[in-house]
Amino acid sequence: MEATLTAPTTTKNSWNGGVSPFKVSWGKLMMWYFLLGDSFSFASFLVTYGALRFSYDSWPVPNEVFKSFPFVEHANWPLMFVSLMTFILIMSSVTMVLAVHYGNAEKDKKKVAMWLFFTIIGGIAFLSCQAWEWTHLIGEGMVMTSNPFGATAFGWLFFCITGFHGFHVLTGVIINCIVLSNVTSGVYDRKGSYEMVEKCGLYWHFVDLVWVFVFMAFYLL
Amino acid sequence: MSAEAHGNMVKLIWRTFWIMLILTIVEVVAAIFYPHDMNRMPLNIFFIVMSLTKAFYIVGTFMHLKFEVKHLIITILVPLILLLYTICIFLAEGSSWLNMKNTIW
């Protein structure tokens, strides 16, 4: 039996430099870590909501607060409008995945542009719905400093948290518009990679993910 | 990407969409029709489980994390355990505030 001094390396050591250990580009990895940090920001707001809510004897009932619907006078449709908003955001996430997929798999400029455009429409639709919801609730008297439905904290927590989320949707829409203009003018064809669309896709899915939890906290629990 | 793999991915994307839609509809129906006089706890646990399921579909399939290198997945998911702990201790904190408000010293 021959003693070997050094073991033959049959697998590339991924931490010795020259390759990405996680097999992703720097930009994509940094987007993941930015989203991880941002999820802590949102989590801290939602945890504040939870802690404050647990410290109250009574809290507004979501089915009572959220029962209106645009263009329907005196609607008693609990949670219907927010369900529509959730559907719009999920749908825009699907169109975003398709845009990313066609960019990576086929590098098809037209398809990427089309699905990215639908994603932007979905984002604008969501923001419009949120704006209507805010206007309606403020019209009913729920504002930052008072709330006819019960605890004042419910009001300002709602506006602050959905506002912070809506701000993320807005910046997502703006970034998607910029990337759409880049796609149509052929920037990523010249670059050879549609990875920027994928990175924006990660941000957009994060926005959808946060909404899943905001929706759960304010409207379901 | 081969034509077959491409078709499979598109099918997976739409399948995930239908799962998300059905989960959301089930959640909303449960929220509206759950009897008011029953204990809320089972319903809340149901919502949390449903939302976590949706989260796993978004992060795993839409954000593609399921298909990434295992150690990348770990660096993303392990810090979120800290979040889980934070949620638990702050809910306990909130309950403690309520107890202090309601106790006559």
Beta-strand proportion of chain A: under 5%
Alpha plus pi helix count of chain A: 7
Name the overall outline of chain B: flat
Pick out the low-confidence regions of chain A. none
Query: From N to C, what is the helix and strand string of chain A?
Result: HHHHHHH
Content-based structural category of chain A: mainly alpha
Shape of chain A: globular
Helix content of chain A: 55-70%
Could you tell me which chain pair has the largest interface and how many residues each side has? A-B, 53 and 48 residues
| Overall pLDDT of chain B | 90
At the fold tier of CATH, the topology name of chain A is: Four Helix Bundle (Hemerythrin (Met), subunit A)
Amino-to-carboxy terminus distance of chain B: 70 Å
Quickly count the helices of chain B. Answer: 3
Classified by CATH, the class of chain A is: Mainly Alpha
Q: Radius of gyration of chain A, rounded? A: 23 Å
Number of strands of chain B: 0
Structure description:
- The complex is a heterodimer of chains A (221) and B (105).
- Chain A contains 7 helices and no strands.
- In chain A, helix 1 (26-54) packs parallel to helix 7 (195-220), helix 4 (109-139) runs antiparallel to helix 5 (152-184) and helix 5 runs antiparallel to helix 7.
- The mean pLDDT of chain A is 92.
- Chain A is mainly α and 221 residues long.
- The termini of chain A are far apart.
- Chain B folds into 2 domains: 1-67; 69-105.
- Chain B has 3 helices and no strands.
- Chain B has helices spanning 3-33, 41-62, 70-102.
- In chain B, helix 1 packs antiparallel against helix 2.
- The longest helix of chain B has 33 residues, at 70-102.
